Predict the 3D structure of the following.
Amino acid sequence: MRINNLTKHLFAGTLLSVLIFFSISFITVLFHINSPLHRINDFHELKIGFPFIYYHEFMVEFPIPNSGWYLTNLILDCFLTWLIVTAIYLKTKKLQNPNRH
């Protein structure tokens, strides 16, 4: 029964970490869209990711943006978010039920 309970908590922690990862990514996009500093001399730049930037887009000529994905940084961001959120979730569940091992 212990393994089933742990699996359920790991699944819930993973679901929470996915939601938090998407929220952090969306917030980084909002900061770049709303910031008046992202347009200097009609130069557009967009960086997505925290703490590692995993997507970068910039404008050299007006109609065509240059962009690139950094998959290593994307994987690191996903893993770091999962590790922190799931650890905090499991710790809070353990603190709520101190008699359970």
The first strand starts at residue 39 and ends at 40. The beta strands are 39-40, 43-48, 55-59, 65-69. The helical segments are 2-34, 71-96.
